Amino acid sequence: MAIEWDRIGQVAFDRHVEALLHRLYDGRAIAVNGRGGDKGIDVRVNTEAGLRIFQLKYHPDGFPGSYRGRRTAIKQSFQRAMQHDPVEWTLVVPTTLTPSERAFVDKLAVGRTVKVTVMDRPALDNGFASHSSLEATFTREQAREAARDFGREQALLVDGDDLIQRVRALGSRADNIDPDWTWDFQRRGDAVIQTLRAQHALAHEVSPVRLTLTTRPEAMDAGLTAAFTRTLGYGIAEEVELPPEAVASLTIDGPEWLSKTVGDVRVTWQPVPDASQSEAAAEVEFLNSEEVPTARYAGRLIAQRSGELGASVEADIHGARLQILVPFDKRVDGTVRYSFDLSGREPAEAMKVLRLHQRILLGGSFRITVEGTRVGSGRLPATGTAEDNAEVEKLLSYLSDLDVLQHHCESYFPAPLTYSGEERIDLRIARLLIEGRCVAYRSARTVTITLNGLDSPALRTVLGPQAQCLRFGPSGFEVTVGDHTLDIGPVHLFHAQVTADNGRQAIAALKTGRGAGTEVVFRPQDGEHFRLYLVNAPDDSRPLVPVLLGLPGYTDPR
Questions:
Q1: Environment class of residue 496 by beta-carbon count within 10 Å: exposed (0-12), middle (13-18) or buried (19+)?
Q2: Which of 139, 360, 429, 441 has its CA 20 to 30 A from that of 37?
Q3: Cα-atom radius of gyration of the chain, to the nearest Å?
């Protein structure tokens, strides 16, 4: 059904043409004013070649020579449009031009470089024919088709293809309701879900849709209230769902067919991906009381937004997500959400992530920069309890020890986040040995050796009643961490005051020639343990005095 151009009137004509130009130019057509134009422009389109201007004149019976006022108005509109230096000027009219009228339009371009064209009734009919859904929107033919489709839906489905065809036909009818907006829909059980979708890039400008949401605060828990504040107050892009009991009403203002107020509705809003800022360099600094940076963490900007209450910055710091909310009111502390996962990270990387978490728990002043430009600053409250801080310190200590071990053995793997007490103790011992320290080894209260039968004065002295200085080794020292076993290298086991538990019996066996196979137990005096040190550790010339392991809850051996 063709559009009756000579009967629709000026307002409808303008809307028809504007909608068609939006389709023809993929949303790049911009209607100016919409009520008669502005400075010679009714619709403008920025093309690769330059600016193109469309001038809309609703003259159903044309503008013959006898209508001098109409021709004068067209010429004046053309002259005003030339102030914008367009590459093409197009007159849009709802009738087919006569040779005289076309000659008048062509003459406008004489002496100018601008291209002058006409979009008359045949061109308009052809344009709408190429966009049948748009034509159906204005002719309302889709109303009759929808009624026929509804009658079909009462019939039995023949097969799956029949279902697809009917759904597609229903979608086409939905597209014809409005030139700017349409409904996408889906069925889940007995629920039908409708999603409003723009039919072109400028739908929100040509036909804006506004939502007014009234909530019931008493029906919103703390978590929902916080999410509500983050999204509307600070612009954080996250999905938030309000259950029906939390929604007093939802009012939709827009096209007549869409506008309404509803209750008993579940409201969900979802973030729109915005990659325009991604990969920008972001940095967060923590400051002391003199505003001097005490820590600095660099990463990648995810998003920078703002809302009614303040600004927000989201960044990726070493693979962890940092979300900082900076209130506009400087008297209000900022807040931070920091989500991270240490699994799959090597110790060095995990420590960076955990130390940033520790800084946030401790609170204090901070500032944020993006590409070197300061975008926000504030103060964080201390949120970590004593138990929280102790737990972070405990994990940092473990990761630090493992990092030293991995560098020494040149064996790198993700840090296991669960470990036994024995593994933890051995890991700390290994680190101290690598750093050239001496430790009392908890597993060496005694050393048992087997005699080979050879006798000597030196052996008799060692087996005698006087304490002696003994050293055993070298042998490797292995540390098991998760599924990995690492050998830090040969170590010496020693003590300066050692006696043999059964030395007298061993000497007697040697005197009778039966010493071979005799086991002798050596034990440090005063209940102490043997000491360990790494053979190839750097020598700092300090005495081999055992150092404490310094592990909370662990009692160091003597």
A1: middle
A2: 139
A3: 42
Identity of the residue numbered 150: F
Instruction: Map tokens 């996250």 to a residue.
Output: 238
Where residue 229 falls among pLDDT bands split at 50, 70, 90? confident
Contact 81, 70 (CB under 8 A): no
Say if pTM beats, i.e. exceeds, 0.70: no
What distance in Å separates the CA atoms of residue 134 and residue 20, rounded to the nearest whole number? 8
Quick one: which of 405, 392, 391 has its CA closest to 482? Answer: 405
Alpha-carbon distance of 295 to 466, in angstroms, equals 57
Exposed / middle / buried, residue 236 (Cβ in 10 Å: 0-12, 13-18, 19+): buried
Q: Where are the beta strands (DSSP E) in 439-508?
A: 439-440, 447-450, 468-481, 484-500
CA 499/CA 524 separation, integer angstroms: 6
Q: In terms of residues, how long is the chain? A: 558
In angstroms, the CA 247 to CA 263 distance is: 7
Helix ranges (DSSP H) in 25-159: 68-81, 99-107, 121-130, 132-139, 141-153
Residue 46 exposure: Cα atoms within 13 Å on the Cβ side: 2
Residue pLDDT, tens place only, 17-34: 999 998 888 878 888 865
Q: What are phi and psi of 463, to 5 degrees?
A: -85, -5
Q: What is the pLDDT of residues 488-524, one digit of tens each?
A: 999 999 999 999 999 999 999 999 999 999 999 999 9
Distance between CA atoms of 369 and 300, rounded to whole angstroms? Answer: 11
User: What average pLDDT does this structure show over 88-94?
Assistant: 95
Q: Is the peptide bond before 474 cis (omega within 30 degrees of 0)?
A: yes
pLDDT of 158 above 70: no
For residues 525 and 118, what is the distance between their CA atoms, to the nearest angstrom? 111
pLDDT for 141 equals: 46
Indicate whether 36 pLDDT > 80: no
**Helices 99-107, 68-81: crossing angle, 10 deg rounding:** 30
Look-up of token digits 């900007």: 301
With 60 as the cut, is the pLDDT of residue 153 above it?
no
Using 50, 70 and 90 to split pLDDT, how confident is the model at 37?
A: very low
Check pLDDT > 50 for residue 131: yes
Beta-sheet pairing, 88-92 with 115-119: parallel
Q: Are 268 and 229 in contact (CB under 8 A)?
A: no
Helix pair 141-153, 132-139: axis angle to 10 deg: 100
CA gap 173, 239 in Å, rounded: 30
Collapsed DSSP state (helix, strand, coil) of residue 298: strand
Give one word for 281, left, alpha or beta, with left for phi > 0 and alpha for psi -120 to 50: beta
Residues 6+ apart with CB under 8 A from 141: 1, 135
CB 490 within 8 A of CB 537: no
Q: How far apart are CA 533 and CA 490, in angstroms?
A: 9
pLDDT level of residue 156 (50, 70, 90 thresholds): low
Helix (H), strand (E) at residue 530? none
Q: For residue 91, which of 135, 52, 130, 51 has the smallest C-alpha distance?
A: 52
40 contacts 77 by C-beta, under 8 angstroms: yes
